[in-house]
Amino acid sequence: MVVEILGESDIAKHWEGMFNSKKYANSVVASIDTIFLSQLPDRRELEEFILAGNIFYFQYRMGGYPRKEFSICEPSPFITILNITKTRCHEDSEM
Fold this sequence. Notes:
Helices cover 14% and strands 32% of the residues. By secondary structure, the chain is an alpha+beta fold.
């Protein structure tokens, strides 16, 4: 899936879709970790998070799952999402 990153991020990139020349700004291509998926009691819960226009927070690792023969998405995933939540993972604190 394509995730637009709001704000500054080291993982976000500017790129162009291979099939339709759509331009993506400050975005990543992400795969979802299969262990995370297997632990969800109901996958519809995840679908609610990732609907277009929704804001969510996630933990990730660099690199995505390798492309399968039947997958036609381009480019290959930049990251793999390990966890998704509706609340920030951490709050910045003043010192």
